[in-house]
Write a structure and sequence with these properties.
The chain has 294 residues and is α+β, with helices and mostly antiparallel strands. It is built from nine helices and 15 strands. It has two domains: 113 residues, Probable inorganic polyphosphate/atp-NAD kinase, domain 1 (Rossmann fold, 3-Layer(aba) Sandwich); 159 residues, Tumour Suppressor Smad4 (Sandwich). Strand 8 and strand 9 form a beta hairpin.
């Protein structure tokens, strides 16, 4: 008999996951006991520290990228290595979709009982943790300035619409970047430090991506004329071309990034939520988390 801790965010996506709870539990009823934890305005890491986490065999996380990041951060802080599964029911589910995880109750049952558990990397940005992406520049403020009702109705399309509106207002982000091996300065339009190969709803951003290799992909578009930056977006996200002259692509397990210009933007974005202010030190957390996959 498996003990399953099901953690769900009632605000994720359209908020209708609660309607699927009965079907999910019914599928596992014969071989599992569920404990439900509804996320709210409390410190999840502290809550984990007060719970008897060793009693659980599996953690299920129902929500989007931000929810997954919140839960896995709390697991890392408390040194919890229980295998987990992601039920992708958020507005943005980049990490779960990259890993080809399903929100269908029958498929969840099949993966838990017939799938496998793999090690996956995570990242630390100053005192925050992320599982998929740490970003700066163009994409940073878009999720936070997009209307919640629009996000729930249109999903990732709402971000694209908002992004196009913001494009002409973007100022250069002057950064000094230390990879542990090289140091360079550049005016950037945006940068992504990604763990998986998916961000912003776009798959296969880098052919080098390996979720368990202890390295991040760093993808950046240099600041320039409006048409050059727009073309950079097309090359990176549509054509999957990372070799253009206004595109930077490299791999590392470490980045130290300083804002050395006068751009008023002073914070990053991690997994769709507001991230730490600059300077930001990003490190790979290798081989800690354990994830159920097909």
């Amino acid at each position: 008999m498996k003990n399953i801790l099901l953690i769900y965010n009632p605000k994720s996506g359209d908020g209708n996951f609660r309607l699927e709870l009965d079907n999910l539990i019914a599928n596992f009823q014969a071989g599992a006991i569920f404990t439900l934890l509804r996320l709210g305005e409390f410190d999840l890491a502290e809550r984990f520290s007060l719970m008897e986490m060793d009693r659980y065999d599996i953690i299920m996380i129902a929500g989007g990228d931000g929810t997954v990041s919140w839960v896995t951060e709390s697991m890392i802080i408390n040194d919890i290595k229980i295998p987990f599964y992601i039920i992708p029911v958020g507005t943005s589910n980049d990490f779960a979709e990259y890993m080809r995880l399903s929100a269908e109750t029958g498929k969840i049952y099949d993966i838990i009982n017939n799938g496998k558990v793999i090690s996956v990397d995570a990242g630390r940005a100053n005192d925050n943790y992320f599982i998929n992406v740490c970003a700066g520049g163009f994409l940073t403020n878009v999720p936070h300035s997009t209307d919640d009702e629009m996000k729930n109705r249109l999903g990732n399309l709402a971000y694209y619409i908002r992004g196009i509106q913001e494009l002409p207002k973007i100022n250069p982000l002057s950064l000094r970047i230390d990879t542990g091996k090289d140091v360079f300065e550049e005016d950037l339009f945006l940068f992504l430090i990604i763990n998986s190969g998916r961000a912003g709803g776009f798959n296969d951003l880098s052919p080098l991506t390996d979720i368990s290799d202890g390295k991040f992909e760093f993808i950046a578009i240099k600041y320039g004329k409006l048409y050059e930056m727009f073309n950079g977006l097309i090359e990176v996200f549509i054509n999957k071309n990372l070799s253009g002259e206004n595109i930077i692509h490299l791999q590392s397990d470490y980045f130290y990034i300083e804002n050395v210009g006068d751009n008023l933007e002073q914070h990053t974005d991690i997994d769709g939520e507001r991230g730490p202010d600059y300077p930001v030190e990003v490190r790979s957390i290798h081989d800690f988390l354990r994830l159920y996959v097909k």
